[in-house]
């Protein structure tokens, strides 16, 4: 039984340690005291039962007293627990019953020494060999325990219904500890002769551990380590001791029946062997089990912290960052509701940036209670001044007891009622500030955890760390947002700029188009005017020629008539007709001479805007008529005259004369036998000199030698045979071109062809008021 | 009594030829070099046939035609011109010209028109 006794003794030490921890750490001192007494009672029961067992054989007299003390602990325990329950559930009306419970339990405990009716017939008469036989008072004690536990049960259930959140979670744990306490009393079954293994102490340890978890860990205390070790040890002890006791029991029973000489020490040996062998793996398994079911929260928190940190570094927008923080709070930490307020330098207040978990009201517009908070608000003042997380429960406790909040030197008077009111209106259980330098930058409001648990100190540590870390991220994001908005502004300006330049370009194109149309219209007008002039000329020529023609025809008619009347007519009779005919033929001749004279005398002709294209293209038919007669037709003439060439300023007839000359020269440069005769005329404007048009006049004729090139524009110079060329053509060409303010050059290679390059100034509207002249001409 | 014919034209040679021709044919001929002269003869002599050139130095041949038709609606008015102008031809038509000749025309053609309009013999 030594191992069993040792279990009891070490269990007592554990209970005492947990009770002591609670005594020093629980902020509510009265609760801590009661809890310590409960632990003491449990420890006393455990310790003295163990002590009694050890001393049973050598010192039976001591053992009796030890049993008495242990029993006293067991009898008093329900009373303490009752007291604790009334405290935890804040049942003020229970004071009397608590006192009654204490009185009854105390009397029964004292009666252990006064009456022998607790046990009879000494020890050893029952299966475990050491439990005293139950007397009437033991039954009373157990009855009292039952009554008290029942009362506690009702208290817990009643309180559990009217509360929620942290309190409710605490009550759940306490409720769970109740049956364990009850099971611990199963030990006394032995006193009634029931063959139940005495595992009560193990249940006592479990029950107390659970209660301690409920009372300590759900407060703002980092009790995880103590609780965890306690639970682990308890479970280990339970398994080892339970296993050993069970093994010894069954070995004794079963092997005993077969009268096998199984010594108790063999069993010890075997069990210790097993314990040594399996201890490590058993321990690890237990750690995993406790971690999973009791301390899961912490590991989740760490994961959340890790995830959140990683997430925050990747966030670029403030809006998204805040949403992430709130998302982590609500979804990952499983907080029912959360919100973030951010410092707004512009309005010098804290504005709500994002809230979640407030049902429909979280949509825009923000509900009134989420309105901006100024620096002067007590909550902001508290957070700025104390630089710590604040929990509503602690504020409540502080308001109720004046304790519970750590003191930071000379604390100014904060309006805690207003702070609490604000937190309650925002359904915030806990408020986490976040600082950047001395400035409070953001406030995270967290609602209750969905699990109903309260925020442990570790949670608050984690959240505070996260908040400080996030303040840098928030600042980064804010700067990023600022940069982004600036960038967008620049992009917008750029867009506007490019839009404006696009419109400008469009307008330019339109203007150009309009210009082109105007130029075309002008060219058309010139053409029409020219046609009109030609028409008028033709009409007047017709009139001038028709009259003498009519007279001629009439003269002939009359001569014929005269001849018919008098076939013997003599020439002298009709001589006057011939004279008249002669004079009329002279008239026609004169008309023709006048016309050609007119053309030749147009030197002082009008300068007007001209389309070079028209000038050249209209010269060609005249040339072709001429060359047809010279049997040089079949020459290919290529025009490369862009339609958008600027107009030139010149005299149509004179320029036609120039081109006529050039054409004629080119035709004459071909020998008749050739059949690939080609003339190319191209006009272009060099970008470097937009004020001038160049015309290249190229033939692939016989070409000219260098000597000739030098003299080609000289007056009277000709290579054509006597009587064929006047030597004036190219001289006139140069003269006319120079008259137009241009120049003419020649380039040639013997046998390959000749290129004449003409340069003519572009028509400049502003230069002369020629348009006026032009319109006059059009009217005439 | 020979028929009277008035020739109004500013072109002397033409007038001379036509007058010579019709005189030879036995007509009583009158000539005028301007529109006003022509109108004066129209009023004084009341010719049966009048030959009007549209292009006259003083007034338009059309005006002369109008006066001639006003004075004597039954007068045979033959209009001639040196160049085609459809507008003038149409106007002459409206004013009641009986024939329209284009220069150059020969005397045979003119005689044909005169015969057709005045019923042959002078």
Summarize this structure briefly:
The complex is a heterodimer of chains A (780) and B (122). Chain A has 21 helices and 13 strands.
H-E order of chain B:
EHEHEHEHEH
> Main β-sheet of chain B, in a few words?
5 strands, parallel
Kindly, what is the distance between the CA atoms of the first and last residues of chain A, rounded to a whole number of angstroms? 146 Å
Largest interface: A-B, 20 and 17 residues
Outline type of chain B: globular
| Average pLDDT taken over every residue of chain B | 88
The strand order across the widest sheet of chain B is 2-1-3-4-5
Total DSSP E strands of chain B: 5
Q: Helicity of chain B, in percent? A: 40-55%
Query: What value does the average pLDDT of chain A take?
Result: 75
Strand fraction of chain B: 15-25%
Q: Kindly report the oligomeric state of this protein.
A: heterodimer
Structural class of chain B: alpha/beta
In the sheet with the most strands of chain A, the strands line up as: 3-2-1-6-5-4
Q: Which parts of chain A are unreliable, with pLDDT below 50 for 5 consecutive residues or more?
A: 123-128, 768-780
Largest sheet of chain A: 6 strands, antiparallel
Low-confidence region ranges of chain B: none
